[in-house]
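Mods, move this if it's the wrong board.
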Amino acid sequence: MLSKSINEENIEILVSNFYTLVLKDPLLSPFFIDKLGNNLQDKKWVEHLQLLTEFWKFVALGYEEYNGNPLQPHYHIEGLSRKAFTQWLYLFHQTIDTVYTPSIGEYFKQKSTDIAENFMRKLNL
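Not the wrong board. Structure tokens:
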């Protein structure tokens, strides 16, 4: 059943389901496997998923547990491209559609698109 509201639990589901897809994607998976490995249960992945969950809770719910700089790590990723960001958005939006009703999902789609566009601009992609 699709969620009609945004809360901690379904943000965790969104992030977990999304990165499960990312690890299967031939374009995106190498970026993540290179830094985090290929097992979502490994410590590095668990920490990454927690960080991204906190980020989206900050974005969507105003929670203040996130204190990272989401753009900074992207400066150090070799081979990052506009095509990779486009694929990231495609998979993220696809995952949103499996977790949220369309009206709630549109919020996440717009936020993620705005963030990706901002990142691409700042990374000169």
